[in-house]
Amino acid sequence: MTDMLPTGATIGILGGGQLGRMLSVAASRLGFKTHIFEPGANPPAGQVADRVTTAGYDDIAALEAFADSVDVITYEFENIPTTALDALEAHKPIRPGREALRVSQDRLTEKDFLSGLGLKVAPYANVESPDDMASAVAQIGAPSILKTRRFGYDGKGQARLKSGADADAALVDMQGAPAVLEGFVTFTHEVSVIAARGIGGDVACFDPGQNVHKDGILDTTTVPANLTASQRMDAVLLAANILNALDYVGVMGVELFVTQQGLIVNEIAPRVHNSGHWTQQGCTIDQFEQHIRAVAGWPLGDGSRYADVVMENLIGDDMDRVPEITREGNASLHLYGKADTKPGRKMGHVNRITPRQN
Amino acid sequence: MTDMLPTGATIGILGGGQLGRMLSVAASRLGFKTHIFEPGANPPAGQVADRVTTAGYDDIAALEAFADSVDVITYEFENIPTTALDALEAHKPIRPGREALRVSQDRLTEKDFLSGLGLKVAPYANVESPDDMASAVAQIGAPSILKTRRFGYDGKGQARLKSGADADAALVDMQGAPAVLEGFVTFTHEVSVIAARGIGGDVACFDPGQNVHKDGILDTTTVPANLTASQRMDAVLLAANILNALDYVGVMGVELFVTQQGLIVNEIAPRVHNSGHWTQQGCTIDQFEQHIRAVAGWPLGDGSRYADVVMENLIGDDMDRVPEITREGNASLHLYGKADTKPGRKMGHVNRITPRQN
């Protein structure tokens, strides 16, 4: 396996939040060092990394020095500026690759891409002007939801239309940013597939998890999800379809709506995903190690699930419950080492485990 | 729980090897920062720690600065000089405490302590001179084994006596260091109990594991061990007895010989232990997190085992097998990030998991 990055090599990680932190720990388990690149001071990932560079994504010299110090570059978030990616890629490989970033950085591009693969998505229309908005509302109707094409997360950059009368206000909310109007989909529940693809094209998917959101932020993921065997198969196959189409290397989160008409793709994230944290306790090789294996050119783990798990996010004041959680049996706590607790901030999560039932 | 060290606090770890490394990762999972104190440059634990101090145990100023920067101090090895412990303890609590170190740093003291608890140990006699050696051989006989009282590990500092004729050569091997002559025990196999005691006196034991050594170094640990239900109960109760007698806080490794006459205590180690690495894949809370929970004053996890596990150490050239191990199903690999592979050096381990059978 001459393509395998040797142990002792250094993996560069763009972004120093909790995902970078857990990627860094997984990399260490395989004998790799990590180097975190993060604009903010004292990033959570820096507490468990060999090196940290504190610099902005517009600091080309810092990006180049970072790239020169590592063997391969990966990332914990998709909204990395193109100029930064250009500077990095001139020095070292970026995995997952640029095409996955290009597609997922823009909701319109992403929906066009998914539709082009023959996958179902919610009805959508591009909105860059008041004229676009009028025709989008005519086409999609209401209720619907206007979302910025770029830089949205955890419900931010979104405005709901209860009726066509809300169109003007929603457009103002976008602050002039290009947007997409999405029709509401009637779904029974949301699931996500955490899928991985290796450098040789092999694909391994974890069991789909069922997601519940609260205030626009993921609250819980439960495995197994409430899916029929054929729905589960559909979910895994369509995820594999997406990864293959992108010649993807790494772990991707694929969010799906379960509807009477089948599975509808909500969105994709070219990285480890909050809805995959359950794998830390449910699988021999979790999503973080799976991602590191992929970007390092190592064989993927098989991703089999040995337990039923409910992952619960700890957001803001949920931290007050930590003492009682530490007294629960079969609860695995993961805290992110963030200095300040703020409303809506992801502070940690807990995986509650029971023996596998089916 | 006002005694609980708050998340965001810093745990100081003496020793930067693989045990310190895995303790550091476990601490991060609970939101703690870690600071490693280690005389050697570029310690494996430093790759996943917030801070590293590179200084010797005779550098009192460095020890004091280290102690001032942390909230509690623990360690990955027992042979810490008393002067260093004095300097540290003047500033911050050391857990497990001094009594456990005093007992386990000297084989004679340890055997006297264990015998005093009514536990069985191999026949032993103190050897500080040729006269002692003569009377020890007369008392213990041969085959037997002469071991330095302090600083032995992985079979180092030991000399075997096939007969009394080997006595002089064995004594020369000790290079004048005080030693203990131990009688050979006829045992069917060796097991160890990884036991934890919390700051409030609660005790939790992991299932005993069965150990196989090769060239004096642990090769594999298998759970469940080959023990009857009553032997398993004896093993756990005697381990709890030891921890309670020491008013112990943290994880301890207790090695036991299984004999026709019952369980004989081989040795104790006041720290996380190589024979407890299987807990990383067999339990919701592993020995490293259990140790951190104890020294941080947090409630212990229950330590239940959900899988059968065989832990195999990767020593020296075993690293050549890493590519094939990465292709195994249900094998969890843990590499230590050591720069150089040397014969006899512990480079990593692999936990192979199967569903729990009993």
TrEMBL record, chains A, B:
EC number: 6.3.4.18
GO biological process, one term: 'de novo' IMP biosynthetic process
A Gene Ontology cellular-component term: cytosol
Keyword Glycosyltransferase: no
Pathway connected to this protein: Purine metabolism; IMP biosynthesis via de novo pathway; 5-amino-1-(5-phospho-D-ribosyl)imidazole-4-carboxylate from 5-amino-1-(5-phospho-D-ribosyl)imidazole (N5-CAIR route): step 1/2
Sequence ranges assigned to domain ATP-grasp in this UniProt record: 111-296
Any one GO molecular-function label of the UniProt entry: phosphoribosylaminoimidazole carboxylase activity
Catalytic activity: 5-amino-1-(5-phospho-beta-D-ribosyl)imidazole + hydrogencarbonate + ATP = 5-carboxyamino-1-(5-phospho-D-ribosyl)imidazole + ADP + phosphate + 2 H(+)
Keywords attached to this entry: ATP-binding, Ligase, Nucleotide-binding, Purine biosynthesis
EC category name: ligase
Residues that coordinate or bind ATP: 107, 147, 152-158, 182-185, 190, 213, 266-267
Signal peptide feature range: none
Alphabetized PROSITE patterns for the sequence: ATP_GRASP (PS50975)
Top-rank taxon: Bacteria
Function summary: Catalyzes the ATP-dependent conversion of 5-aminoimidazole ribonucleotide (AIR) and HCO(3)- to N5-carboxyaminoimidazole ribonucleotide (N5-CAIR). Catalyzes the ATP-dependent conversion of 5-aminoimidazole ribonucleotide (AIR) and HCO(3)(-) to N5-carboxyaminoimidazole ribonucleotide (N5-CAIR).
Family: Belongs to the PurK/PurT family.
Subunit structure, as described in the record: Homodimer.
NCBIfam families: PRK06019.1-1, PRK06019.1-2, PRK06019.1-5, purK
Protein name per its UniProtKB record: N5-carboxyaminoimidazole ribonucleotide synthase
Organism: Aliiroseovarius pelagivivens
Gene from which this protein is expressed: purK
